[in-house]
Amino acid sequence: MRAGLGVRLFACLIALLFVTPTLIVAATSVTSGSMVTFPPKGFSLRWFQEVLTDPEWLTALGNSAQVGLLAAVLAMAAGTSLAFAAARSRFLPPALVTGLAVLPMTVPLVVAGIGFYLVYIRVGLSGNVLSLGIAHAVLGLPFVFVNVLAALTGVDRRVEEAARVSGATEAVTLVRITLPLVAPAALVGGVLAFVSSWDEVVVALFLNTPQFRTLPVVMWSQVRSGVEPSISAVATLITLVSLLMAALVLVGPAVVKKVRRRT
Questions:
Q1: 145 touches 83 (CB < 8 A)
Q2: Gap between the Cα atoms of 39 and 218, Å rounded
């Protein structure tokens, strides 16, 4: 059943409302003036050059990339493990595991930030990639859990039983059969965890120090003192990275399946 013309026009209008602010920010990032104005005055890439040559921005960019990658890896490991526990465990109630895994989605970010801050102060872990990476991994864990759990429910158990009948042990079946089948779902969840960490600012504000700040935190501090086109340039770069990750989510699973078929 095809959608009617009115539905399609309404969908296009909603999409336009979502996209327009991003397009406006991108337009203000290429202005030749020294203030954020729309329409932009002239065309220049000077603000991108300034951002990519400023040590403060580059340090923040590196911090965000490291935190995002660490958060994605930890979230993939923990989320996949919890998904297996919810789908295959004989001792843990699936509802309990699922509730714990999706709990970070329900906790307000301000509450989570305060909680992480209080815990890190007691254990002396703050102001570095590891501390913020663990915090963002917890926030990104539900993305991996939901994707992998959905993939596990779609796995034909007869394939695993055939491997065991052929002589494979539980560990070999897990590594050679089950994990490759859910790998695309774990990859999608990991990318989503990276994107959520890439632009997260609330928890990062609680855990940052003058020596360690991520890109959104630096943007927040710059906005409080005055909006310059360099902020728009950084926002555009963040958007481009997010779009690249979205493309990876769409293309990644198909590539993994194709490689798995060849091997």
A1: yes
A2: 26
Q: How far apart are CA 140 and CA 158, in angstroms?
A: 32
**Contacts of 111 by beta carbon, 8 Å cutoff, 6+ apart:** none
- Residue 37: C-alpha distances to residues 26, 42, 51, 226 (Å): 11, 11, 18, 13
| Range 138-157 average pLDDT | 84
Instruction: Report d(CA 106, CA 109) in Å as an integer.
Output: 9
Check whether 74 has a pLDDT greater than 90: yes
Q: Name the pTM for this structure.
A: 0.80
N-to-C CA span, the chain: 39
Closest residue by Cα to residue 60 from 217, 243, 204: 217
Q: Kindly report, residue by residue over 247-259, the tens digit of the pLDDT.
A: 777 776 666 667 6
C-alpha R_g of the chain? 22
Measured distance CA(2)–CA(257) in Å, rounded? 30
Largest separation between any pair of C-alpha atoms in the chain: 71
